[in-house]
Amino acid sequence: MKLRVKKRHLPGRIATGAFILNSGIEKARGDDETAQAMHGMASGTYPFLGKMKPADFLKALSATEIALGTALLLPVVPTAVAGAGLAAFSAGLLGLYLRTPGMRKEGSLAPSPQGLTIAKDVWMLGIATGLVLDEVLDED
Questions:
Q1: pTM for this structure?
Q2: H helix runs in the chain, sequence order
Q3: Where, by residue number, does the polypeptide cross the bilayer (predicted)?
Q4: What is the rounded CA–CA span in Å between residue 100 and residue 90?
């Protein structure tokens, strides 16, 4: 059976896939307090999410992370598809970072202590961009 993934893509796919899958599994175990906190932060930045119930939001986020993490870990999912999913997910997180007050130092893109946990997700966008570009520009 031939893998649909180039060997050079495996480290990025495994690292991000395992991280995101674990995060989704942890969120699936979340309680009402966790749901309210995560929903409050997300809906403050993305107002359309305010229409969802916090518990439903947490379930949807958990399912999304589990699906994305699994897609990254499964070599049968084409890299361009997995990379595009990762790009969309990480762009949403970075949007949260850029648009949520208190996440950045005043007048700067540098993270505040509160923003560090989200700002670090820029590495996922970098991996996603590399995966997609490698697939699109590859002449093999």
A1: 0.90
A2: 10-28, 32-45, 54-73, 79-99, 116-119, 122-137
A3: 80-98
A4: 15
Whether the CA torsion 82, 84, 88, 93 is positive or negative: it is positive
| 57 CB-near residues (< 8 Å, 6+ apart) | 35, 38, 39, 42, 43, 49
With 90 as the cut, is the pLDDT of residue 3 above it? no
DSSP code, position 43 = H
Model confidence pLDDT, tens digit, residues 40-88: 999 999 999 999 999 999 999 999 999 999 999 999 999 999 999 999 9
- Whether 134 contacts 112, CB under 8 Å: no
